[in-house]
Amino acid sequence: MHRAKISLILLTFFIFFVSCSFRHDNNEKAGIQIKGSDTIVNLVQVWAEKFSQNNTAVNVGVTGGGTGTGFAALLNNTCDIAMASRKVEEKEINIAKEHNIFYEEYIVGLDGLAVLINKDNPVQKLTMEQLRDIFMAKITNWNQLGGQNRPIVLLSRESNSGTHIFFKEQVIRQADINSKDEFSPKALLMPSSQAIVDEIYQNPNAIGYVGIGFMNDQTKAVAISARNSNDFIYPSIENVMSGKYPISRPLYLYTNGFPKGFVKDFIDYTLSEQGQKVVAETSFVPIKK
Amino acid sequence: MNSKITDYIIEKIIFLCGIIAIVFVVLIFGFLLKEGFSFFKEYGIFNFVFGKYWYPSSDPASYGVFSLILGSLLVTLGAAIIAVPLGIMTALFIAELAPKGIKDILKSVVELMAAIPSVVLGFVGMVTLVPLVRSVLDIPTGLTAFSGSIVLGFMAMPTIVSISEDAIRSVPWQYKEGAYALGATKWQTIRRVVLKAAMPGIIAAVMLGIGRVIGETMAVLMVTGNAAAIPHSIFDPVRTLTATIAAEMGETVRGGLHYRALFGIGLVLFMITFLINFIADLFLNKNKKR
Hints:
Strand content of chain B: under 5%
Number of strands of chain B: 2
Number of strands of chain A: 12
Number of helices of chain B: 11
Radius of gyration of chain A: 22 Å
Order of helices and strands of chain B: HHEEHHHHHHHHH
Number of domains of chain A: 2
Distance between the termini of chain A: 78 Å
Strand content of chain A: 15-25%
Largest sheet of chain A: 9 strands, mixed
CATH superfamily of the largest domain in chain A: Periplasmic binding protein-like II
Helix content of chain A: 25-40%
Oligomer: heterodimer
Structural class of chain B: mainly alpha
């Protein structure tokens, strides 16, 4: 009786561990899994739909979560393509090498980061230095910027967001790789770009940053001047394409090694003329005219 | 002989089902311990628990959860202050005062409340409650611990109501008859006899309700603002332990420091809920012995 009990317990453990070791066995599915940046999830979703119309045999699944999520998923072998709104870091490449993963990079479009404020906020333009001081909580009231006497509420994305990291590098750290400056801990980390737009729409104190695809009539974008320049540039597709707007960046797709089969077809499609037309339609900036 | 074998097999199947729950809890705890402790060894448990800054994606990263623990406790405390009096009074009303028709409706409505998914509550809170909190209280943003407390209070209430109602109803009727016979009014009977006798059950209900609040993730992620700064009042934005795990688990690489730091948070949460369940059990057992 006692022995039976022990053998049963052992059996349970055995079944558990065996089932654990089978969990990676899902490489054979007939479809493409795409994960990563929330910034371009809408764009890639449209690509996926159009691509599926022409290739009915292929099932394309697109999920967001943030650029970091995409890289981690590629590393953990749970997706075929990672969407990214920043370049892969040296550190991440090294970790990937240990896991026998080699990131292959494709630039598929451009994006500008718009700084949004509420429509009732009279502030029209900000310099990069002011923007940095705002997000580091050195400037805490709108009246220091010529606005009303209101506290500033900072809206940021989660730290797994490529937008968050790009903004940190370009604005908070002013593109200085040795800088250790951080977002103020008082910054609210919002779960999505849409959540930032929604909060700005109803809160006159708020300021936040989103891809220009998320700009709308319910909020107001401010013009930004580059470092050491007095030209305030409004975030628009033309200004991003010409390189005048100071906070713009390329958008990437990453695969593990050179893609084959459907994954290659999909990447080729995104870079084709039709694919780039979709980029413009979803308010991003195409790489070539 | 044949029926003996069937008996034996069925007995073993039932035993297996019973033991599986224990095995899973032990395995989960073991896994948490393994990942959590390897993190503590590398980063230091003191730096982890009392560190002020949570910057997981910086270089070098800092993993201080002090502000997150405070955030979780603040939201939970606020939710308890809202849900406990409301819940106990609703339970009293259902068990002692309500007429039959209202009682049935109320009971099923409370049960329905328990079935609302937390994402839905969080979404409704984000769209309606957050702007309201900001404009009524005139504070910089409505995404605060206070909004989180209200939403979570709503989630804890059904648990508190149904368990304390059971406790109140299981007070022997002789106690009440005795009180009335001594000339006590209805309110005196409820306050001095019924509530006193049902107290251990009510405390257990409160503890289970709080256990649900502290483990809740989706709703708080949507309404508390997620700023990892030490809050100065309940009207500041906070970030909770659970929201941190949910928001960041996707970006971590299996086995990395950040990944194990999230397991460290899991371990802290496990300790807190274990403590709460333990206290609840203590009171439930006390109730049974009477």
